[in-house]
């Protein structure tokens, strides 16, 4: 271990986002994990929460002491419930830390939108102005220069990677975009909730948050940027009886009815040429979420229905890696000037 | 057992459709199971295929001898792969049997559509003209008078129950209808296929048959009937890591932007007032497929998104009961003049 | 509904035991459900807890008012956490109710054993003396005459049905009995616990309570009765990533090395001749828990290993039906002089 | 890629063992994958079988041409059905390849035992004499010098790691050893079988091969070696509704009733001190199979029941990694003189 490694801390390390970060950072060649902070679990050895890590992690969860954290860390990941990061990030930034927030706090350019959907007033407009939306496939250059990243939600990541080439290049009628998304239950976090019990969720399937899920305005903000016009999307999340994985099935009407599937495969491949984690599938192949399990990859399959004039795009990610912690590490890599894919898994175990 | 019971046979009793029929008919108060027929399993005790039924079924699977079947049965269910029933039904009908076919053979008014999608030429137009589409909620009266029923596919059942009130009464722009459907793997039948292994399908999720699934023209035929105009729908099936259940998430643009959710709940409730198996959920409640597990019920949840002007309808069934065998028994009840719900489960076990 | 029906109440109707009772009693031909009582959910319509029952249950959960309950019920099921029934049963019995307790409170003849394992002192020795252990296959006659039933735990039911013929007739060396039991997670109840989340429990398997699970003394009490001597068993429970079902794999050394599998199949079949819910499987067939899903059945498979001189017995039940609520209804049937199997499901849905 | 890398081939790369090897060897720093051979899939790009690997594997499956394989490989893994490797290994060894066989062909010192359980006559006694049983924790030194490895079965790996310290040091009465093992369904391989369909295996649990599974003599051979006396074990495998993972629950009677749990934890820790992949858990912690998912680790929990005088050992592995392909790579590392853990995953993703 060297003094040349970047010292990294995690505030909110006890949840599923936290454990992914811990695991990824333990295997990252340029990083040293120096601070795990938490509130309710402060004082406990981390391996009390995750006994399978006993042999690799001998850190204890410490209190959230921002001064101490800033002293001991060059970069800090925040894995807290919505509404807490906005009180911590300004302090950490002022002390020179790079900050990567996994909550919704720094995802919105317009804080009124945040307040409307997340029910919290915000005073940190100046800090918010610094924040870059942490989707490297769209904002790679801005991320490289940023000190503060608002890491995207899991659903927006899958949805925007599916939609971006279409919106950016004006191939679809924007208001026809419908995102039918399906997620494993780990997206609900490591909190005890009756509807997330195996006995409840196993062997069943349902929608939730129909027409009112909070990832909707987040998708719309970025989609509007890409389209160059304000637009609204239909977004419906579903809970699937599995642990990990998101599949977004995206529907939209093509402007040009002459476009065929192979055109779009070419267009997507070009759009993501510089993006090591996005894999465009050959025609007739649709992604399985399991292909992305434990990796930072996004697999995209594309179909055109000549009968209806619609494009159907299927995008699959691991909701906790590319949809959360892995993407945050991808951002850190860019911020630090490292190779974008450094330390990030690219090969799932199968089956 | 009395001579007053209706004698019923099943051709193709070895698969998942067959075992559902066996189970439902064993508990049906007006029916006596008199003939189980199969090809590859002929000669075997039925309990060799399903050992848990040893204590209740002591029938042996017999060869498919249509003469013998017609002699010993008043009504016959056909649970065979597509393309076989059309060679058997004419014979059974000629001998006076009522016939309920669970395959696609008698679902299409226009046999050219059948031949286009199922790749088999048909000579039995006259017989086909007799067939009634076995969705009681739409064709109750015709079913009562029918001798031949083409029982609907599992996806069309869930999709059409969700769409019918909207189409029948002209509430939506027909060409905007998108059906994003999700099914448990039992829909694939009891055949050994690699992609249906637990090791492959568990913990994963994917679409299949995008823009080309054979249930599309079946949905379109009935939807066009309801709308009074030819229309096309977008239908995308997905495989979910669970045994049973279908959820159809249906999207469509409302013609009248002033319609609100409660209006539609009222409209649906009225539309299905005489249908004992369709349950319209109160506002804000969306169905879980598990609620319908093992029953002949269809649960429907309704949402309107005032931002986008769309209605989103969620419909959940057990793919093997309301989506297959239970609905066929429901049709038999109507054909025999019995109470529509006779012998059909209405209470799921939970969880 | 008739005045001749038996009026039944459930105290503690909100959990998984409660919902099974509600479902079974709704379909029971001789019973009318007249009182659902609960503490934290008092005042709520029952269908708020289980929306899929909206169309069949319009009862509201009422407070636990023992006077009112006794006035309105002939028989009362108690589905409460351990340690509460012992304060209620005496009151209900005094007012003439039959009482069936699903907790551990009335399972132990010796209250010291109860207090040692359940950490609660007991004053109701007289009431406890009246209680009969509600395993009909062993105590059918006593149950018929009882007013108070201590319904068995789910593990003891599966374990004792596997062991009883061996112990009763002295075929095994008692201290060699090992029960390796596996249960779905619904056994943990409808309480929000992190380790029972789908995200935690799915795709994994582990033991718990090794050498100290509270079902051990319960099994030992009955096993000792059968053997006519005090004995100890090894009992290890495991949590399986599925909703329902228990499999007990029981090992024991045979006293007589000449006994073969078919002897034991004969012996078991004779032992359970009068027991409609126990199904002894033919040789070479081992039970799947799914065969019993939603039924009151217990499937038993038997193997002898001539190399080691051991018998291996496999017994499968639905932990919430034969392992809990169904068995309680079976007891009620006996107490009321009805047919033992009245209203109880005997046919699983498969798959 | 350098000429200094060891050239490795896989015969039988299409199954689950094959895909694990491909994945592990792709990430191994000292290895170059030069030959993928198969019979039925020869001529196909490997990514036709596993589309998620398209971006990383552009090898095509070639015919099983032993000459060509020996020319292009320094070491060869055989991942074939039982009974085929014994015809290939002699040829490959004669040409100087190191051979690691994942089938049962080279696991038995006594070929009569092999023939009795696997029903194939063998002529290759001389080759068999060279074979070393590939369990590094027991045979590390012999593996270092070997040219031919008979890699252990998945159940024997979990069972023997749990039993070895007890047998080696005479702590238990050998004939009391009972192994109740539970496996995910991927152990059945990537072959289409009805009982392995998700629709059949999900939500259910059962034993199979009771008293006659072919891993029994394999466990007994090694256990007898350790104990220094011929012994027999009771081994019962169960199929669990999950993809990966084995848990072995091992019971045995202690010779010395004074031994307590902490003694055994100390003994196990010492026994496995030099074994980087075996993790002994602190008292009161029992392993979850998911902890080992995708890693080469074996987690062991230990309990003593002072009431019965038995030790209960719980051992959890990933059946396809430590139970198969990972352990084979661990053997290759030893044969090549590399660090034992080189290129092998040690950190599971969780949850």
TrEMBL record, chains A, B, C, D:
It comes from the Bacteria. The active site is at 154. It catalyses: N-acetyl-L-glutamate 5-semialdehyde + phosphate + NADP(+) = N-acetyl-L-glutamyl 5-phosphate + NADPH + H(+). The keyword Hydrolase does not apply. InterPro entries: AGPR (IPR050085), AGPR_AS (IPR023013), AGPR_dimerisation_dom (IPR058924), AGPR_type-1 (IPR000706), NAD(P)-bd_dom_sf (IPR036291), Semialdehyde_DH_NAD-bd (IPR000534). GO terms for molecular function: N-acetyl-gamma-glutamyl-phosphate reductase activity. Its EC number is 1.2.1.38. It is found in: Cytoplasm. Its main location: cytoplasm. Residues 7-146 form the Semialdehyde dehydrogenase NAD-binding domain. It is an enzyme of class 1 (oxidoreductase). Coiled coil: none annotated. Keywords: Amino-acid biosynthesis, Arginine biosynthesis, Cytoplasm, NADP, Oxidoreductase. Pathway: Amino-acid biosynthesis; L-arginine biosynthesis; N(2)-acetyl-L-ornithine from L-glutamate: step 3/4. HAMAP family: ArgC_type1. Catalyzes the NADPH-dependent reduction of N-acetyl-5-glutamyl phosphate to yield N-acetyl-L-glutamate 5-semialdehyde. Belongs to the NAGSA dehydrogenase family. Type 1 subfamily. This is N-acetyl-gamma-glutamyl-phosphate reductase. It comes from Synechocystis salina LEGE 00031. The lineage of its organism: Bacteria, Bacillati, Cyanobacteriota, Cyanophyceae, Synechococcales.
